[in-house]
Amino acid sequence: MKVRTRLAPSPTGDPHVGTAYQALFGYVWAKVNNGEFVLRIEDTDRERSTNASEKAILESLKWIGITWDEGPDVGGPYGPYRQSDRLSIYKEHIDQLIAEGHAYPCFCTKQRLDEVRKKLVEEKAANRGYDRKCRDLSPEDATKRIAAGESYVVRMKIPLEGECSFTDLLRGEIVKDWASIDDQVIMKADGFPTYHLAVVVDDHLMEISHIIRGEEWINSVPKHVLLYQFFGWEPPVYCHLPLLRNPDKSKLSKRKNPTSVNYYRKAGYLPEALLNYLGMMGWHMPDNSEKFSVEEMINGFNLTDISLGSPVFDRTKLKWLNARYIREDNSPEQLAAKLQGWALNPEYIQKVTEVVASRLETLSDWGYFTAMFFSDTVPVTEELLAVKNLESPEVLELLQVTVWKLEKLRTWNSETISALLSEVADIFELKLKALTGPLYGAICGSKVAPPLFTSMEVLGSDLCRTRIIAAMNVLGGLSGKKLKKLEKKYRT
RNA sequence: GGCCCCAUCGUCCAAUGGUAAGGACACCGGCCUUUCACGCCGGCAAUACGGGUUCGAUCCCCGUUGGGGUCACCA
Q1: ipTM for this model
Q2: What is the nearest nucleotide to A186, using C1' and CA?
Q3: pLDDT in tens, A38-55
Q4: C-alpha–C-alpha distance, residues A402 and A426, integer Å
Q5: Whole-prediction pTM value?
Q6: Gap from A236 CA to B42 C1', Å
Q7: Which bases of chain B are under 7 A from a protein CB atom?
């Protein structure tokens, strides 16, 4: 059997290290078997998918050194490789399922579903899924309502009883009761398929042999297996990778750890070091060596050798590895060249210089004033973050809401940043100064600093957000409870 | 809460049905060095708990505990 693996990221945010992790293992497994590695963009979420994110993901994968044989940018015999370009394919398959009685239109409104769910939670019901109200509607009725223009989704018919079993390559047989699974939506009201339908159709049509992805998907495998059955297809091999964790063991999240590949790039990590580090999460070289290239990994790799305890992503050890690459694999000449690629290039130097030019008494002042543009973290103290008449819990809230808003900022420049910060200040009914004060501290680590907005523009979103979160930790951080409350109130 | 997954030093990764349970990061000492770093030497530190199976279990089975995931017209 030809080995074909795929990476199927959804372009809804920053390129995540977890995505790079899955990419590495999928890529390596394909190469071990002289197979192909496919990149497919899963953009079936119209609300959240963006071209900018797709572009950023492709770029970050290229930066880290992962290449693909087929994908939206390079094409291939199984295209198109962007799900939004495959709508007619899904439509066909959904129609087939309805015609064969495996799926049905559902007219329940969101409000009704919310109410049903709420009631079930209150009753502490074991199964809190959809109550299948529309499952037994007559096809004629349904057709009539659709013709009348009523909004509907399509759901798949899950067996009411019995159990589903499937094999995970690393875990063996996994069994789940059908009763614990509700009738999954496979087509949304906007006509787009959901992940569950699209992933099955595409993996089959693209002849994917091994699905290598995160453990968070294990619980939805029964639904996928059932779809394979409906279509009369053979499911691929399932291999669920352990999830990368924060130091506190929760699933790796940007609140507790920088998760954007771009952050690591900007902070001066070498792509080969990051990739190597990812390779030692859940796996080790046959000789236990810790520093290895992707080529070496391909020579020693076997999918079944992955261990299942979810590894903590430890930035300290990553830094140690990165340091080894810097000192062991680079002459001063090579390092100098890398530095130029990283930040010491005319473009960036000019941007930075524009920000500090008016402050220079001598050219030699330049280094002093621009250090913050060539650093990862910056020295922050409580004093630097203090705001007159505000307690630090309030400052923390201010900073947190700012981070949330910055995450969503599509166009990153001084004007948009300025507008956004004013907006945040307004929300809290504070003067802009109450916000820019602590931000100067967080971003610049000094009271002597160039203008905030342009500095942030030059520094870029990843570094800015990471620094603000680091500053929040200096103030003790927000508790989970407070965070939840705040999120309810301000996060939009 | 239901269901699913997982369980070796603080962290990452080894090991065998019989071991002094090994390496790396971090940490602590020391050496080297004009300083720091690198490098070298040494130290601290783990089989979650309770039952079985077995002559013998860290390893196999069961339970408990703990951690994680998942229960969307998000992926």
Answers
A1: 0.95
A2: B73
A3: 999 999 999 999 999 999
A4: 12
A5: 0.94
A6: 52
A7: 1-8, 10-14, 22-26, 38-39, 67-75
